Amino acid sequence: MLDLSYDLPKVKTIAGAKHDWELVIGMEVHAQVSSNSKLFSGASTLFGAEANSNVAFVDAGMPGMLPVINEFCVEQAVRTGLGLKAQINLTSAFDRKNYFYPDLPQGYQISQLYHPIVGEGEVLVEMGAGSAKEAPTARLVRIERIHLEQDAGKSIHDMDPAMSFVDLNRTGVALMEIVSRPDIRGPEEAAAYLGKLRQILRYLGTCDGNMQSGSMRADVNVSICLPGAYEKYQETQDFSHLGTRCEIKNMNSMRFIQAAIEVEARRQIAIVEAGGSVEQETRLYDPDKNETRSMRSKEEAHDYRYFPDPDLLPLEIEQSWVDAIEASLPELPDAKKARFMSDFGLSDYDASVLTAETADAVYFEAVAEAAGDGKLAANWVINELFGRLKKDDAGIADSPVSPAQLAGIIALIKADEISGKIAKDLFEIVYTEGGDPAEIVAARGMKQVTDTGAIEQAVDDIIAANPAQVEKAQQNPKLAGWFVGQVMKATGGKANPAVVNQIVAKKLAG
Amino acid sequence: MSDLNTMTIAQARDALRAGETTSAELTDACLNAIEAAGELGAFVHNTPDVARAQAASADARIAQGDAPSLCGIPLGIKDLFCTKGVPSQAASRILEGFKPEYESTVSGQLFDRGAVMLGKLNMDEFAMGSSNETSVYGNAVNPWRAGNSDAALTPGGSSGGSASAVAADLCLGATGTDTGGSIRQPAAFTGIVGIKPTYGRCSRWGVVAFASSLDQAGPMTKTVRDAAIMLEGMCGHDAKDSTSADLAVPDFEAALTGDIRGKVIGIPKEYRMDGMPAEIAKLWEDGTAMLRDAGAEIRDISLPHTKYALPAYYVIAPAEASSNLARYDGVRFGHRASLAQGDGITEMYEKTRAEGFGAEVQRRVMVGTYVLSAGFYDAYYNRARRVRALIKQDFDTVFAAGVDAILTPATPSAAFELGRKVDDPVEMYLNDVFTVTVNLAGLPGISVPTGLDEKGLPLGLQLIGRPWEEADLLNTAYALETAAGFVAKPQKWW
């Protein structure tokens, strides 16, 4: 199903004082697993609960407490891996990542360093689908691995001048860390990659993708190289062709990610062009100053003393279970988009827009099927419905117009019962007041007038009342439009425009 | 009836069922004995109110004819077990004042079966030690004395309080835990029986962790029969412990036929260490002869990687401990150091842990941190894991060749004087030389008292069994116990 006939997007270059530079970007995305309970405890994962109310003894690191894996979280990780066309590892294992912090009660995070549950996969990142005019391009970004790990709690430093507080509600919530290869070539691609990942995860139901509440966060590795070097890396997979990378930690906004990459690349270019060298380090992005700042250097990097968690046996899963999960996967964005293009004759752009969210796609498909016209359905869903919903700051789930109602409006257009203009009025009535479109049209006399006798009468009246205009129009047939407009006005817009055109032309021709 | 506290679990069970005594009487006898035995330092938190209430409900159950084997039996619980609402501090200052909101699976199972908790028992801090001298409560003392000497001897460790209490008849049995020999060595030092079951037999849930891949709970009792009864009450699958085995628990007591004819007993040559005291060598030979006389086939075997076991153990156990003990940071429970003006979170960690942990715990945390650190991980931790796999393979090979159990000394010596080894950690660690292999391989091991040394101190032999075959191992131990006829008791001086 996957259509790889796209051209590659143009690599972002930044002009330095001496050279043009290219960017090389790899991302580690932390996606919170959609699950009612935590990775190793039965405590709730509900966001926004009262501080420290969703904490099991094991989450609080109480003595003698032990972790027990939440099978549903494993299933979600497998589902995610399958959705990213990745290798599923039937045996994986958990390791402890040791460090001290008050919001890490055990003194270690349980993660999967040595044997992650998901291996190599891929994500098709389309570019230029943001507008109907640009020709779409796309890049295949390789996924290196996905592993399961515990989230930390939250330290709160601004409630008291002398003390810090800790909220353990988030402690132990399951995260998937999705690690890409350095296949991303610019800030826009990074945002598009994250957007595509978010879309796929939301389709799969494995992460709600809510970036504001921190359900998706990204660490971004950025380096720069001269044109040509990246191709050598891709040929050999030898990282020495690439520049030294810096990792920008913990960002949860597409806009900030793009800005951070840009400003970090420029920082590195300035260093290298001045004859210096980039230090490998972890940095933080400050959106207020639009700069990245060193968080800790390689020397200051924690020694996490990873070792296999002795409280947990290796995680063994059955191929048959993986197969069952695979069989239950929903149609994913790439496949759905390709199908919309082939089955409904939609453009790449329209298909992209309509498959952005599962709910949009489901809505569209219901309209298209009921109306029997995919293209018209796409126009109405994208231009009228989405536009109107946007005005109300609402989503498809809040739409007061059901697919059947919208299909009813489209059916009236197709049957020549109403004109396009009337259809828009009708849409507004259905949107605000509800009701069956056909009944509304009948009850309110909105039906298009196709009775040529009535239209002829109206044309005759206007011709009779405007002899000067008739003379002009006979000399310049383009002015016939004025008569058409007058007729439409006189009939309250209900006259069939095609019929009016025809009669006006005939009458003017005498 | 006087001296009810000197009964075995089996005797008490039968007497309770026959209506010859009550749990309340048994419990009072034990509480009186504990009261009079302060010098032993065995019990560190007494729970007479809990005990009397549990005894009353046990008596009610027995009256109704609902009397599981442990119903009404007064026990001591090692301080490493979290007991709900009762101080549980792993003999450490860092858990000062800690009263858990939960009951460990093992102690909970015992109480569900009607057992009575007399109190919490002394131990080495976080179970790290072989003499009970690292306890924040001060050491427990061995009820045995050498000849006419009144020098205080160690009860062994880490389950020193458990051993002392059972040997001195302060309770009918006690829970212990064993990471490198912490049940078997103190049992041998005090003339009682102690079994460490197969790793995964007893749930670790609610037991303060020392080294998670090695820790196992087990009973410490006066007889092998009591060990069988109590082990059955302690073990079983627990979904809350991912390393707990989902296996049925056999009727261990029913396995005690004493018939070991045709069983193959392995004698590993590598355990014949240089400088082994003659009386230990003789004890071993005598034990071998007893099993042969009982109809077992004696076979010389080799466990070639034995000599690497102790170093591997003292890498793996501290490594896990350094991580397991990270949670004691003063943030949520237990001891927190008082801080000076301007102190931040780092100072809080440093001061709290410096004050809260004793020297031995600090030593192991530092060793463990070192062996896991970048650059040393492969040389120490990974190498130790490979050694561990080879040690397990040694045992697998021997068992595959038909050996049913392996007989070794339990300890390199009898109980030593308190204070004698406390300044030399390496000499202290050598106490575990015969026992750590069993933990590294995850096997069941039992210590049985079989004789006295020339100063009249008890000595024990260790039997090592096949994984999950505790029933068979207990039966072999029962045959050894019967043949040895060890009945000596310490002279009461406390």
UniProtKB/TrEMBL annotation, chain A:
Q: Which enzyme type, at the first EC level?
A: ligase
- Choose any GO biological process term that the UniProt entry carries and state it: translation
| Record-linked InterPro entries | Asn/Gln-tRNA_amidoTrfase_suB/E, Asn/Gln-tRNA_Trfase_suB/E_cat, Asn/Gln_amidotransferase, Asn/Gln_tRNA_amidoTrase-B-like, GatB, GatB_C_1, GatB_Yqey_C_2, Gln-tRNA_amidoTrfase_suB_CS
Ranges of residues in domain Asn/Gln amidotransferase: 362-508
Single GO MF annotation: asparaginyl-tRNA synthase (glutamine-hydrolyzing) activity
- Sorted UniProt keywords: ATP-binding, Ligase, Nucleotide-binding, Protein biosynthesis, Transferase
What SUPFAM superfamilies does this protein's entry cite?
Answer: GatB/YqeY motif, Glutamine synthetase/guanido kinase
Question: What are the EC numbers?
Answer: 6.3.5.-
As its record notes, the protein acts as a catalyst of: L-aspartyl-tRNA(Asn) + L-glutamine + ATP + H2O = L-asparaginyl-tRNA(Asn) + L-glutamate + ADP + phosphate + 2 H(+); L-glutamyl-tRNA(Gln) + L-glutamine + ATP + H2O = L-glutaminyl-tRNA(Gln) + L-glutamate + ADP + phosphate + H(+)
> To which protein family does this belong?
Belongs to the GatB/GatE family. GatB subfamily.
Known partners and oligomeric status: Heterotrimer of A, B and C subunits.
What NCBIfam families does the database record attribute to this sequence?
gatB, PRK05477.1-2, PRK05477.1-4, PRK05477.1-5
Q: What does this protein do?
A: Allows the formation of correctly charged Asn-tRNA(Asn) or Gln-tRNA(Gln) through the transamidation of misacylated Asp-tRNA(Asn) or Glu-tRNA(Gln) in organisms which lack either or both of asparaginyl-tRNA or glutaminyl-tRNA synthetases. The reaction takes place in the presence of glutamine and ATP through an activated phospho-Asp-tRNA(Asn) or phospho-Glu-tRNA(Gln).
- What's the name of the protein? Aspartyl/glutamyl-tRNA(Asn/Gln) amidotransferase subunit B
Query: Which organism is this protein's natural source?
Result: Thalassobacter stenotrophicus
UniProtKB/TrEMBL annotation, chain B:
Q: What does this protein do?
A: Allows the formation of correctly charged Gln-tRNA(Gln) through the transamidation of misacylated Glu-tRNA(Gln) in organisms which lack glutaminyl-tRNA synthetase. The reaction takes place in the presence of glutamine and ATP through an activated gamma-phospho-Glu-tRNA(Gln).
Reactions that this protein is recorded to catalyse: L-glutamyl-tRNA(Gln) + L-glutamine + ATP + H2O = L-glutaminyl-tRNA(Gln) + L-glutamate + ADP + phosphate + H(+)
Q: Family, per the entry?
A: Belongs to the amidase family. GatA subfamily.
Instruction: Please list the GO biological process terms of this entry.
Output: translation
Active site: residue positions: K78 (charge relay system), S158 (charge relay system), S182 (acyl-ester intermediate)
Q: Does the keyword Transferase apply?
A: yes
Residue ranges of domain Amidase in the record: 25-474
- Give EC number(s), comma-separated: 6.3.5.7
Q: Which Gene3D superfamilies would you find in this protein's record?
A: Amidase signature (AS) domain
Query: Where does the signal sequence lie?
Result: none
What's in the keyword line of the UniProt record? ATP-binding, Ligase, Nucleotide-binding, Protein biosynthesis, Transferase
**Quaternary data:** Heterotrimer of A, B and C subunits.
NCBIfam families per record: gatA
Record's GO cellular component terms: glutamyl-tRNA(Gln) amidotransferase complex
Q: What class of enzyme is it?
A: ligase
Protein name listed in UniProt: Glutamyl-tRNA(Gln) amidotransferase subunit A
Q: Which organism is this protein's natural source?
A: Thalassobacter stenotrophicus
Q: One GO MF term, please?
A: ATP binding
A Pfam family that this protein carries is: Amidase
PROSITE patterns, alphabetically?
A: AMIDASES (PS00571)
Give a yes or no for keyword Nucleotide-binding in this entry. yes
